[in-house]
User: What shape does this take?
Amino acid sequence: MVTKAPTVGAYLDYWLREIVDPNLAPKTVDNYHRFVRLYILSYLGSMSLARLRSQDAQRWINKVAQTCQCCAQGKDAVRAKKKQRCCALGNCCNDRLSARTLKDVRDCFRSALNCAVNDEIISRNVIKTIKLPAVRKKRGLRWSSEQARQFLASARQDNDPYYAAYVLILIEGLRKGEMLGLPYTSVDFDRQTLEIGYQLQRVGRKLLHRQTKTEGSDAELPYPAIVGTALRARLTDRDRDKHVAADAWQDSNLMFTTKYGTPIEPRNFDRSWHARIAKAGVPRITVHDGRRTCGSLLADLDVHPRVAMAILRHAQFAITMEIYTEVSDAATRAGLKKLGDSLA
Assistant: This one.
């Protein structure tokens, strides 16, 4: 063990620069930098890494859990005086971290200290011993088959420019980033398949078009007729937008774009999704709940769990079910057709 260990802050700076930045996904990099800056350095940054003990780590996480982040980060204070409504006026809003975020912060610090152990700077990782509040898994919302049909029918009747996007989420189970990052060349109309391999993500101030997070997310998915019809209509609209924009068109190679060919901001899609929900008169759910609706509908329709897992590319979907049955392409296609027909 090295006798002169760096401070916690110095080691975390090294870890972020040399380990995290070059090797992890942009979203993870952004989160780790934020966790270190907001929740670790101000508490433990000046402490010697070698002197960090389990009691220090437990007191640290307890303090983070009890701290109002609005006060700590001055969230209310940076607002214009007329818009200040809580902490800046002495009315603490108790904006504390959720158990989920607290666990993510702990995991970030634990990962850093694992590297310090591997570097033989410290002999053990004291973060492994700390206790956290249990993370209660939120029960996801979903639509019934009739509600999903009502939502899609409303979008189709109004010629909603995102109709094909809604279809991909509800029938193919695409994640929002996968749908927004789908290249138009990834659709094979002859074979009736989609090649899933990219995503669009907002990371800080950058909008990134990059490969999906894991190889397990990549897939060639067959699709039913309703998907093909929607995508053909979307390409027709895309060609029209390109013609109207003329020299202002910026070709991003994406299936879903603004009227000038640029990528769609994820938050703007969220707004359109919720606006369509209001027009359709169905319960308000998130875009991710729309993907969950696809999985639930597949189960409701008695599609084999292994087929549903192949469609959703989600290993946990069939965690309590039979997950070792081989699934043929024909079975996957039949499952998707069954779902598509129920929503048509």
